[in-house]
Amino acid sequence: MVKRSIFCATLFFFTVITCLIVFQSPVMAGKIKLNYANFPPAPTFPCVQMERWKKEVEKRTNGQVMINTFPGGTLLGAKGMMDGVIAGQADIGNICMAYQPGRFIVTNAMSLPLGIKNAKKGSLALLKLYEKYKPKAFKDVVVLTMFTNAPGNVMSKVPVRRLADIKGLDLRASGGAAQILKAWGANPVGMPMPATVEALQKGTVKGLFSSLEVMKDFKFAENCKYVTMTETVVYPFAVIMNKKKWNSLPADVKKVMTDLKKEQALWTGTYMDEQIQKSIAWSKDANNVEFISLSAKEKAKWDKKLDFITDKWIKNAKDKGLPAEAIINDIKAFAK
Ligand code: 3IO
Question: For a 10 Å CB count at each end of the chain, is N or C smaller?
Answer without folding.
Answer: N
